[in-house]
């Protein structure tokens, strides 16, 4: 790997820190918001899940904007919106205001920032996309490691969660903006191609299959990232021990992305994606076993983080296997469409888990719901990942 490729990975890594790391850490902020706004878990969880869901769900528009304006411009705009969203959130007095500032403004900003990195990575590393994505997305693991300590320190220094959120906004802007400046794509091909419309891309059978699969997967994958700290407190852990579960989640996300990415490039992205989905489903279904001890919850958190990190990296690379969208413009639009459907499920999953808790005063039904969604996604991607000669294909790129 040359110096230029290393620089691109570094830039993508920074966008991962500023977006995914922030989203991973909502579980810590969630606990303070529950106290500050005295609302239900479903309603409060919707703040973070809306932001994370829009980060993915806005991908179709982000992909189109990036195809037109480029990764640097869109990534810089994403940095600005992310910073403003967090700073504005620090002044909110009602939960619905947080839906706008934290959920929508931050979510849209993080979408532009993150997918500028995703699309640039797919262009620079067409042969080893999953491995490169695993390296770059390891930046997401910084959040669970750093945010619990940083959040506590910022609250002490600024007098509470509001000041801490504003300070975090300034930091997120700086990190995302620094990453965006290094996301220039490779030189364009000399061959002139007609612009590709989102409708044409969505007509490709391989893209449609991935849209359906990631939509189903979205309902299950983000539940622990939102609820893990509160879940630990419900199991009578101290605040410090409950927040440490996020560290284990981050450790899993940080350490497993690269080996899983390398395995996916070697053995097939769809096969590995299916296997990790099934592993994650089993982990969620076994929560009655994990919750018997702190050590069990630590193992559970590590497994969840490993699967979340690996699956997020793989989700962004599955489209590379669809031959009909090999053109960079088509690739950007297909990535956006697939991530948009991931975002819809990702928005609803943690809210549904919170609603189950509000109804039954236990997270078990929500975790079982997530396990079912992940198992269905694993079956879906395995069944639908057929060789080209067994499927009807639609050509987007001649």
From TrEMBL:
Subcellular location: Membrane
GO cellular component annotations of the record: membrane
Alphabetical list of InterPro entries matching this protein: MFS, MFS_dom, MFS_trans_sf, Proton-linked_MCT
Keyword presence, Transmembrane: yes
Top-level taxon: Eukaryota
Keyword Transmembrane attributed: yes
Recorded topology in the membrane: Multi-pass membrane protein
Keywords per UniProt: Membrane, Transmembrane, Transmembrane helix
One Pfam family of this chain: MFS_1
Residue ranges annotated for the Major facilitator superfamily (MFS) profile domain, each copy included: 1-389
Official protein name in the record: Major facilitator superfamily (MFS) profile domain-containing protein
Source organism: Pelagomonas calceolata
């Amino acid at each position: 790997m040359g110096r230029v490729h290393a620089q691109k990975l570094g830039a993508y890594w920074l966008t991962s820190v500023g977006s995914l790391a922030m989203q991973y850490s909502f579980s810590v902020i969630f606990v303070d918001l529950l106290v500050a706004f005295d609302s239900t878990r479903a309603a409060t969880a919707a703040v973070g899940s809306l932001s994370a869901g829009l980060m993915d769900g806005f991908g179709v528009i982000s992909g189109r904007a990036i195809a037109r304006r480029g990764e640097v411009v869109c990534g810089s705009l994403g940095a600005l919106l992310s910073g403003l969203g967090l700073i504005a959130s620090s002044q909110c007095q009602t939960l619905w205001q947080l839906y706008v500032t934290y959920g929508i403004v931050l979510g849209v900003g993080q979408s532009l920032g993150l997918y500028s990195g995703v699309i640039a990575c797919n262009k620079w590393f067409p042969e080893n996309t999953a491995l490169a994505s695993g390296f770059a997305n390891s930046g997401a693991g910084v959040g669970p490691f750093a945010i619990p300590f940083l959040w506590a320190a910022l609250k002490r220094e600024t007098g509470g969660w509001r000041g801490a959120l504003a300070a975090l906004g300034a930091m997120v802007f700086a990190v995302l903006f620094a990453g965006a400046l290094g996301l220039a794509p490779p030189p364009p091909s000399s061959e002139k191609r007609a612009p590709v419309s989102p409708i044409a891309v969505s007509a490709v059978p391989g893209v449609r299959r991935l849209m359906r699969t990631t939509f189903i997967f979205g309902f299950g994958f983000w539940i622990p990232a939102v609820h893990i700290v509160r879940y630990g407190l419900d199991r009578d852990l101290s605040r410090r021990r409950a927040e440490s579960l996020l560290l284990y989640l981050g450790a899993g996300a940080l350490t497993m992305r690269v080996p899983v990415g390398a395995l996916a490039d070697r053995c097939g992205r769809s096969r590995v994606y299916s296997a990790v989905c099934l592993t994650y489903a089993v982990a969620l279904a076994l929560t009655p076993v994990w919750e018997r001890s702190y050590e069990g919850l630590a193992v559970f958190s590590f497994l969840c983080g490993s699967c979340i990190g690996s699956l997020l990296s793989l989700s962004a690379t599955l489209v590379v296997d669809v031959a009909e969208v090999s053109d960079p413009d088509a690739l950007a639009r297909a990535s956006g469409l697939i991530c948009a459907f991931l975002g819809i499920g990702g928005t609803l999953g943690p809210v549904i888990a919170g609603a189950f808790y509000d109804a039954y005063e236990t997270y078990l039904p929500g975790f079982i719901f997530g396990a079912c969604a992940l198992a269905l996604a694993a079956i879906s991607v395995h069944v639908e990942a057929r060789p080209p000669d067994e499927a009807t294909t639609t050509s987007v790129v001649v």
